[in-house]
Structures are given as C-alpha cells and as structure tokens.
Amino acid sequence: MEDEPAATQRRRALLALLLLVPAPSAGTLAAMVFFPGSATGQWVFAFSKFWLFMFPVVWLKLVDRGRFSLSPIRNGGWVAGLVSGVLLSLGIGMAYVMLGGYFIDGHLFRSKLHEVGLATVPAYAAGALYWILVNSVLEEYVWRWFVYEKCAVLVRPLYAVVLSAVFFSIHHFFALRSYFSLLPAVLCTAGVFAGGVVWSWLYSRYKSIWPGYLSHAVVDLMVFAIGAVLLFGDALSR
Known about the structure:
The protein has 238 residues and is mainly α. It has a domain of 166 residues. Helix content is 83%, strand content 0%. The model has no long low-confidence stretch (mean pLDDT 92).
C-alpha cells in the first residue's frame, strides 16, 4: 500500500519473498532428488506448483489489497520481446553447437525423460506446448510481476532486475542438475539467469508481462528443439 511507511512496505515485501521463493526449489528437490518416482515427491511438487501460482493472487487481494489485471501492454514492447528472444535463442543454439558435444550426456538426458514419461514424440510435443504456451506465462506472472515488484520495494530497480533473476534461477539449477552433470547444469543455469535478467528488465521497462513472455516463448522453442535433437536425433539419423 503506497500510503504505508516505507519500512512497513519493505517488511511486507521481504515476507512475501520468503514465503514464495523457496517453494519451487522445495518441490523440485522433493520430486527429483529426495523422493524421485514416489507419490510423496509428486505430491510435494504439485503442492509447490499450486503455492507458487496461487500465493501471489492471495497476497495481492488479502495483503496488498490490489486489483487483478491482465497486464495490458500500454507502452509497446513486442519488438523488444521478439528481438531479445531471438538473440537469446541464437546464443543458446551457438552454445549447444560449440559445447554440447563435450558437456551434455545424451544417455543421461534420455533416461531422465524416460523416467518422467516424456520420451515419446506425442508426450514430448505435449510437454513442449504446455511449457511454451502455459508455463511461460505463469512464470512471467510469478517471477517478473510479483517477485520483481517485491524486489523493487527492497532495492533499486536495476538491482531488483538482478535479484529477481537470481531467485528465478535457483530452482532451475536443481532441476537441471537432475538431467545433466554439474558443469553443464551450471552453464545452463547461467543461461537461465541471463534470460531472467532480460525478462525482468522488459517488465520493468514496459510494465507488462507480455513482452517478456514473447521473449521467453521464443527461447523455450529453441530449448525444446535442442531437447528433441538429444532425445530423437539418433532415430531421425537412421
């Protein structure tokens, strides 16, 4: 609330971050590290997803007393979103071409996708569509709108861009570590961080999640294309 003392706003923002940011890491660790393939892991993961996406709504209405919005684009940003997505995708593609053969264990990657049921073409395509069309929107809503806004209460906008990108990257590292060895997981997490910086900056610049979503969706297209090569490349080359 804008009429509250700054110290109260900062305490409120810090509490919101403490309650939200650890949730996806807890879910990822439960499902992929501590209880893989178990009902417990899946339930914890599902609850963490529910918490991640419902908490900002509840906080907005009950704590901030704000209004719902579809985050309309009023200041432009489509071109910036598209261009940034293409540039990030080119960087990812070049990194894969130059380094993928040295650092990525294709057998480990394929075995993990078999474990989670995404090793067939229909399942993989369905997963890709979900992540590109749905999950990317949800991530922009959580990490760029809610988390960035709370970080911006605590620190200056430029630092908020970086801090929100750090928070966005943490659970991705745990997930990537389940699919790759340490070095490629670190490198991929660095890429996630770079994307988070760009998308948080787009939100801070245009005050809408949609330019960041467009950029995010383009990047996800490249990521899933590389995943398809790793998963189905041998079959396609026969």
